[in-house]
Amino acid sequence: MPFHLSVFLENKPGRLEKIMKVLAENKINLSAMSLASSGKFGVVKLLVNDPQKAFNELKKQKITVTKRKIAAIVIDNIPGSFYDLLRKLSDKGANIEDCYGFLLNDGKTAAMVLEIENQPAAENILKDIDANMLDESKIYNY
Amino acid sequence: MFWQKEIETAPRPEILKLQLQMLNNTIERAKRSKFYSKKLENISPLKNIEQIKELPFTTKEDLRSGFPYDFLSVELGEVVRLHSSSGTTGNPTVVYHTAQDLDNWANISARCMYTAGARKNDIFQNTMGYGLFTGGLGFHYGAERLGMMTIPIGPGNSKRQAWFMQNFATTTVHILPSYALRLYHSMKEDGINPKKDLKLKMFFIGAEPHTEELRREIQELYGLKAFNSYGLSEISGPGVAFECLEQDGMHIWEDYVIPEIIDPDTLEVLPDGEEGELVLTAINRYAMPIIRYRTRDITAIIVKPCSCGRTHRRITRIKGRTDDMMIINGVNIFPVQIEKTIMNIPQASKNYIIEIGEENYMDRLSVKIEINDDTFSGTLEDLEKLKYKIEAELKSETGVSPTVSFVDQGTLPIAEGKVKRVYDLRKKNKF
Predict the structure, then answer these.
(1) Chain A hits for B407, Cβ within 8 Å
(2) Sign of the alpha-carbon torsion through A126, A128, A134, A135
(3) Whether residue A120 has a cis bond before it, omega within 30° of 0
(4) Which of B372, B378, B410 sits opposite A6 (nearest CB)?
(5) What is the mean pLDDT of chain B?
(6) In this complex, is the C-beta atom of B18 within 8 Å of any C-beta atom belonging to chain A?
(7) Which of A8, A36, A37 shows the shortest C-beta gap to B371?
(8) Are B16 and B271 in contact (CB under 8 A)?
(9) Residue B320 has what pLDDT?
(10) In Å, how far are B53, B240, B405 from B252, measured between CA atoms?
(11) What is the pTM of this model?
(12) A66·B376 Cβ contact <8 A
């Protein structure tokens, strides 16, 4: 399964900047991200074009980073399409840990990036509902 | 088994007899100093050892105000070395040694290491600081007296430490417990597994109060035995008390010091087994005898004889210093209580600091812990769970409610020496 990077960061000026500097200096492109904070510290999820290289470079800079499995599902860029997807997932009992999305190049479709609890059961659920999964190579370079 | 069997296993009455004789000699020698000539003016030779209670205490403030030479009991020409505290907060505490003092100290340090199982074929790497600090030179001469090949490497430079350990097959190391953890992580980063790649057999750990949990962690990480060491520069340095193979309390060498435990508030001497402040009288020192020195270290004397056969009594692990104690909204807390709690939570990193601040006129205890690379799962939920778990455990251990937060790796101020863990940010004299 494809993965994105989960990075620990303190909630202080300059911390997100430091992470982005590592990506910039290594010519790694950021496709999408989400950030959740718990007051003094938080976690940022990064979807990048070369996740393994990004992982190594962040580690070198003593940044706490780990890999998390994701599924990217293509949905139509029309009202109600994400609702349809979520309805199917919740019917199967899949709980979403984290989620963010980005518009695909054609402008007519979007990719929703999901972190689903209970791997690998989640993979079967995605098959069951016949989700339109974005190909691994396309996730990193859509 | 023993470095000096006769004295280490002497029957108690003989030890007490020897102590009385050495104490009376010490009093006479001490009277030659400016400080004790007044303090001990009316003291005649003691008839029994219990009378030590009648002698006055000596405090750290006395040593400071007696700077530089008020405690000197010999001609300056007899002195061959001085050791000194840093003196950043007023006069430093200076301690003088004659050649005989250094000889006695080397012997007592050798006895410590022999007691823990070190022998002349061992290779000894001394990572303690050399110089004015007594940790380095004290055991350096002890190790040479024992006959070990001694590597006087001093503190810091973890890569070099590991290189020496690998290339010279170091077996015994004198090390700060906090540095032992740091060194392990440095080795791990460089792909060195101390259990497989090194020949280490034992660590001598001391100079910082630490918990049993931290000792076990060090033993586990390196696959060796870590022995607790106790000493203080005012008496000479490391070597005052040391663990035997039983690892159950430290034998305090009673032909070198007379230990007492007092209640730090009432100054009453407490019976064996009760916890209080350790008071030491050095009975085998010449340049600077010191009588009933209030160490401010909290410990207890263990009543039960040790199965190793040594008759010198043991003291329990140092719980903290009377002046380490933090008072948080009226509750007394020792930093070691916090360390113990953190050590018991495997997912928590062992690198932390304690901050005491104020919020709405109340004291606020907060603990900052570096996030652990190995256990960061990647979800905020797990971090929060860990935070609440540590907070709950700390509350149950200390009785106050601290706030825990996680900080980036490598951001806590860690030196490769004694680690300052407690930062009191409260305004002094707030009333």
Answers:
(1) 10, 41
(2) positive
(3) yes
(4) B378
(5) 91
(6) no
(7) A8
(8) no
(9) 80
(10) 19, 6, 40
(11) 0.74
(12) yes
Positive or negative: CA dihedral B51, B52, B53, B56? positive
> Which of A16, A17, A40 is the best residue to mutate to test the B interface, defined by the most B CB atoms within 10 Å of its own CB?
A40
% residues pLDDT > 70 (chain B): 96
Structure tokens at B144: 């040479």
Closest partner CB to B376 (pick from A8, A40, A62): A8
CB within 8 Å: B376 and A64: yes
Q: How does pLDDT run across B173-222, given as a tens digit for each residue? A: 999 888 898 899 889 989 999 999 999 999 999 877 788 988 999 999 99
Task: Determine contact: A96 vs chain B, CB below 8 A.
Answer: no
Partner B contacted by A40 (CB < 8 A): yes
Sequence-separated (6 or more) residues with CB below 8 Å from residue B335: B209, B320, B324, B326, B354, B421, B422
Strand partners, A34: A45
- Residue of A35, A41, A70 for testing the chain B interface, max B β-carbons within 10 Å: A41
Kindly indicate the confidence band of residue B431, based on its pLDDT and cuts at 50, 70 and 90. Answer: very low
pLDDT in tens, B51-105: 999 999 999 889 989 999 999 999 999 999 999 876 555 678 899 999 999 999 9
Q: Is B252 helix (H, G, I), strand (E, B) or coil?
A: strand
- Give the mean pLDDT of chain A: 90
Closest CA to B175 of B422, B419, B345, B423: B419
Spell out which residues of chain B touch residue A98, defining contact as CB-CB under 8 Å.
379
CA distance B332 to B355: 15
pLDDT, tens digit, 9 for 90 and up, residues B371-388: 877 779 899 999 999 999
Q: Report CB contact under 8 Å: B378, A15.
A: no
The residue among B340, B386, B333, B383 whose CA lies nearest residue B363 is B333
Closest alpha carbon to B378 in A57, A47, A29, A42: A42
CB contact under 8 A, B408 and A8: yes
Reduced to 3 DSSP states, what percent helix, strand and coil does chain A have, rounded to the nearest 5? 30, 35, 30
Contacts of A133 (CB under 8 A, 6+ apart): A71, A72, A73, A74, A126
Local structure of residue B235 (DSSP, 8 states): T
- Please judge whether A15 and B408 are an interchain contact, meaning their C-beta atoms are less than 8 angstroms apart: yes
Q: Which residue is associated with the tokens 């024992």?
A: B146
Strand order in the sheet with A109-116: A71-76, A109-116, A96-103
ipTM over 0.90 threshold: no
Tokens of A123: 């993979």
In the predicted model, what is the mean pLDDT of residues B252-258? 98
Percent of chain A whose pLDDT exceeds 70: 98
Asked if B383 and A38 come within 8 Å (Cβ–Cβ), the reply is: yes
Q: Which of B405, B409, B410 has the CB atom closest to A41's CB atom?
A: B405
Nearest to A43 among B379, B387, B409 (CB): B379
3-state secondary structure (DSSP) of residue B314: strand
Given CA atoms B124, B126, B131, B135 in this order, what sign does their dihedral have?
negative
